[in-house]
Amino acid sequence: MNDLPPELSALLDAQGADAARAHRVLAALSDGAWWSPRELVRATAVAHRTASAVLDALGPDLERDSSGAEERVRLVRTGPYAAFDRPRAADPWAPLIQARPEAAEELRRLVAEAPPSRTDLDHVAATARTALRRGVFLDERFDLAGRRLLCVGDHDLTSLAALLVRPEAEAVVVDVDERMLAYIGAAADRLGLRVRCHFADLRLGLPPAVAGACDVVFTDPPYTPEGVELFVRRGLEGMADPRRGRVVVAYGASETTPGLVAKTQARLARMDLVFEAVHPDFNRYSGAEAIGAASDLYVLRPLARAAAGRGPEAARIYSQGGNAKEAAAARSGELEELAGSSALPEPGSDGGPETVVGDWPATAARAGVHRVRLGTWMSTPVEAEDAVVNLTGGWEALLGRALLASGGMKVRAVVPASAPQVRDEAGQRALAALLGPGVGVRFRRGGPGSRLMVVEAAPSPPGPDAPPSDRLRARCRERAHGPLPRVMREALIAVAAEEGRSVNKKTARRSVAEAAPWAAGHTLLDLPEHRFPDLDRAAERIFEAVEGDPRDPGE
């Protein structure tokens, strides 16, 4: 094609066989219409850097319009570029997608109404068509009927898409984003789909009921090598039999950064995962133009010795926000200043905590002070009279549950003052409601101009004249690590005894199952926040049912 601009010819020659990506951009432009660079990237799945290089090389053949909010471009002459618009391979999943118009319409609505992406969690929303594409792929590739799909993070609603395609399946969603858990849970209830949602910060592991319980895993993780490895490890941790299951991963990187892809794939290979298939540009996104608004789909087959495991607790898995690598350095000095202030007496001193939890600077914890890993605090009851928990550096989503994990002892937590649970009265009221009637809570700034907040929670048990439902709620929150149905049953029996009524185990089991069927498989520490009001309402219904039960309580 001798009539191309010299700069474009040189660019295509330099790219060699990989010039096919540039050809996609030229094929799109050959229609002569106006395009924004963002639209070109999304239509072609070519990284923004590559698309920009093509536009720059077009020289006088390209017209630019910068009058609007976003620059637009079009070809001045299209003739030399029509040859680039040649037939391409058909999408093999298109017939399966077209056969499900009702699921497609439902997913368009679900994706449009979903909570917005959170940049601090590296969210970029997949398109509704991609969600359905994943659903039909999972159903075609695996026997999902009667199986359990684990979604390790589910900002893109893959759990709902898979079950819209295969309603006989079950799905388990584990995520740190309370908004998504509430949204998925409400949608699943409305659609009659069997989806169970659990709260968890995946850096600390999976909820107990999820570990070893699932058959197939899907994850669209943060695209740092650390993020991909961690989310895949959690997927392996959740598999009932890794040798018979698969881990399906959405992973994307710019074609200009192959070294990053190599690092990520090397990590997966070291985990004894076989690359059974790689589907290029399978996933499309409403954003992420730096990687072509697209990602590949990996199908990974675990070998018998495939590694799960928890990995490092403080792994920096995200590229932005408080979890990012760059955020770690600024915290140490602030914590040292806070330790010893009136807001937080120095650990080991008079009035200071005996136990410090999480990542503290060495100077902020004296010798002899009991140190506890955050993962241990969240997974196992710890005996202590007074503890302080460091939740800075991207751990603030754990605030309410870290306070509940104290088991009824005095505990203080340090969080950024910008955290939504503490930055205004609405957030503070919501936190107090989550902690319930048996806990008193106070909020104090770390000092003048401090960017830290100290949240103190101390036991404040309801008195004997308090409603029995309040006493049941308080007892449940004192045993946050325990299986929630069992904790509720034992609390019911104990509070009923305080009321002079005998409730046996059978009656308690039936009452809890009827009032809180959603509690099965949960502890309070992995129960999504939107379920806590359901727990409080269940406490009231349980006592109404017991008081109105005509059967002999000793049966």
TrEMBL record:
Residues 328-356 are annotated as: Disordered. Residues 103-291 form the N(4)-bis(aminopropyl)spermidine synthase C-terminal domain. It holds the Pfam family BpsA_C. InterPro entries: BpsA_C (IPR002723), DNA_methylase_N6_adenine_CS (IPR002052), rRNA_MeTrfase/Polyamine_Synth (IPR051720), SAM-dependent_MTases_sf (IPR029063). SUPFAM superfamilies: S-adenosyl-L-methionine-dependent methyltransferases (SSF53335). It comes from the Bacteria. This is Bis-aminopropyl spermidine synthase family protein. It comes from Nocardiopsis endophytica.
